[in-house]
Amino acid sequence: MVDQNVKLSLVDVHRHYKQGEGQLKILQGASLEILSGEIVALVAPSGAGKSTLLHISGLLERADAGKVGICDVATDGLGDRERTLVRRQHVGYIYQFHHLLPEFSATENVMMPQLIAGISDDVARARGDELLGMMGLTERGTHRPAQLSGGEQQRVAIARALANKPGLILADEPTGNLDPETSSTVFDLLANSIRNHDAAGLIATHNYDIAKRADRILTLKDGQLVPFEF
Ligand code: ADP
Ligand code: MG
């Protein structure tokens, strides 16, 4: 891909799963382009294929056919090792359940992806503290996940996803576990961070109030991405 402005590009992506003798067709020609600074919400019923689409977009899973471009990298033809490197460099992932490491403090959880990327301990710690500060968690750096509320855990997970300054943030129902007020705060922090980092975001959510604050809303219909209509 040559256009630096495109953070995620899906072209005619197909994905099916085996189901007994037959096939469960989940994605049947899903296409999408998300530009720098843009936040796209994905709203679709459970089982429609949202997580599958995010996994494929984040190179956690391979499409059966179609093209995936992330930042300026065309990923078709890459092997597993190269895909892992692209994912580490360009993608920040946020799950419904925070997936923080329980034995480590909030700061250490945010340091982890940086240490894996070869950043020194001091620099990673400074960036961890800075990001936790941005999330309003300055006082929580030494706390372990179990000592934090659900909303605080998700804010740490957002800080962790941003740690290596990824161009693309993928969030799979990031507020699915939170009360409405906390959801709103967490979404605003996530959206502001994406915009401030010149990144792009694809956020699967069941929450229409949140979806409405994205730049556009898509849904999955017959395995394709189409504009969502209220
Ligand atoms: P959503 O996130 O929208 O709820 P998913 O992408 O998780 O949907 O799943 C879409 C469909 O694909 C579901 O019917 C699910 O059961 C099925 N599915 C997901 N992953 C697999 C898998 N690894 N093997 C078989 N079926 C799967
Ligand atoms: Mg899902």
Give the CA-CA distance, first to last residue: 33 Å
Low-confidence stretches: none
* Global outline: globular
Spatially, the strands of the biggest sheet line up as 6-7-8-3-9-10
Number of domains: 1
Rg, rounded, reads 17 Å
Q: How many H/I helical runs?
A: 7
| SSE order | EEEHEEHEHHHEHEHEE
User: What share of residues is helical?
Assistant: 25-40%
The CATH superfamily bears the name P-loop containing nucleotide triphosphate hydrolases
CATH-defined architecture: 3-Layer(aba) Sandwich
Class derived from helix and strand content: alpha/beta
Q: How many strand elements?
A: 10
Largest sheet geometry: 6 strands, mixed
**Broad CATH class:** Alpha Beta
Beta-strand percentage?
A: 25-35%
Reported by name, the CATH topology is Rossmann fold
Mean pLDDT, to the nearest integer, reads 94
Q: What hetero molecules are bound to the protein chains?
A: adenosine-5'-diphosphate, magnesium ion
